[in-house]
Amino acid sequence: MLSGGRINCVRGQLQAVLRRTGASSVRAYTTKVDIKALKRLREINPVPMTKAKEALISVDNNIEKALEWLDKDALKTGAKKAEKVKDRAATEGAIAVHLNEDLTAASIIELGCETDFVARNAMFVDLASAIARSAIEATARSNRDSALTEIELKQLATRMLDGHTVANSITETIGRLGENIVLRRGTTVGLPGASDSVVVSGYVHGAVLGGGGASAGKIGGLVAVQSVIRSDQHRHALNQLAKRLAQQVVGYAPQFATIAEWERARASGAENGKESPEVVVLEAQQFLFGGGTIGQVLAKVSKEIGAPVEIASFVRFERGEGIEKPTKPDFAEEVRQQLA
Fold first, then answer.
1. 180 has pLDDT over 90
2. Burial of 75 (0-12, 13-18, 19+ CB in 10 A)
3. Are 280 and 51 in contact (CB under 8 A)?
4. What DSSP line would sit under 212-273, residue for residue?
5. How far apart are CA 91 and CA 96, in angstroms?
6. What is the CA angle 183-205-273, rounded to 5?
7. Dihedral, CA of residue 98, residue 316, residue 147 and residue 103, to nearest 10
8. Residue among 191, 167, 296, 318 nearest 250 (CA)
9. What are the pLDDT digits (tens) for 218-259?
10. At what angle do helices 49-58 and 35-44 cross, to 10 degrees?
């Protein structure tokens, strides 16, 4: 046990240190983690146990402050990891789509990663789905007169997702999953607010579920059909048609909606204009669900609802399109990359 003189000596030494460093006080954080707080924190943010304990100790077991601490730490860790992996090829990934409530517009995005393992991770799927949702919300606030619009990725990166920008959300996810993640492209289809004339639907092939109903897959497609919509019955019929056409687009990969578009491409000498229209033109393809060609099916539906039905636009994304996959490293090198 220290004597009174010895205690005063230690106290004097501590005060001297504080004066030299310019500090006026010492913040004494708790060294014991509250078990209930730890459990609740990991329910909200399922980080590793050691990271959750570190966060709680840093803020005296305050859960709200611990969540803020974890967010800042994830962004800092993600930024360091993103710098390390930025040159790795993100040849895998996921396609996510999102439709607005009145089915007049939809978005499709491709989020790239390095491996199929991460592409199927619930956190990655949730991120892809959230970005697609953010893209269509941004579209709804803009006045567009085109049924097919490429999304400006720099603008999309500044959109907010649960209190974070899209760019920061990607960075944090890089830190948590350890792979390079890249927002490659995005497109919107349809006309927001045109509920009297446009119906949009989509389809994703090989979809993987995330959390809360989110999903993303290997190939996705969107189709917008246009007509004069006089009733809910008409809208329902067009919605079912658009859904099946989206499946057609995903399965048969057309490059043109109409023969007229194909003829213009052929006249200009475009390479895809040399293909047979039965292969590359949507309205000339045999309908996946029977009934003749797509053009014949459109004519039949037009007769049933008493108004012309046309394909306003469509888009198809397949993950990794246009990316040359590098030669795979040996297993040891692959492990070293994952641990970097």
1. yes
2. middle
3. no
4. TT-EEBSEEEEEEEE----SHHHHHHHHHHHHHHHHHHHHH--SBSSHHHHHHHHHTT-GGG
5. 16
6. 80
7. -30
8. 318
9. 999 999 999 988 888 888 999 999 999 999 999 999 999 999
10. 120
Is 190:200 a contact under the CB 8 Å cutoff? yes
Q: Of the given ranges (64-68, 112-116, 137-141), which has the lowest mean pLDDT?
A: 137-141
pLDDT of residue 242: 96
Q: Which helix (H) or strand (E) holds 336?
A: helix 331-339
Residue 257: φ, ψ to 5°: -80, -40
Element (H, E) at 3: none
Q: Using one digit for the tens of pLDDT, what is the confidence trace for 184-219?
A: 999 999 887 777 889 999 999 999 998 878 899 999
Q: How far, in Å, CA of 271 to CA of 131, rounded?
A: 33
Q: In the chain, what's the furthest Cα-to-Cα distance?
A: 103
Model pTM? 0.78
3-state helix, strand, coil in the chain (%, to 5): 50, 20, 30
Which of 90, 82, 129, 89 shows the shortest CA–CA distance to 109? 129
Question: Shortest CA distance to 105 belongs to which of 192, 186, 185, 196?
Answer: 192
Cα 328–chain centre separation = 26
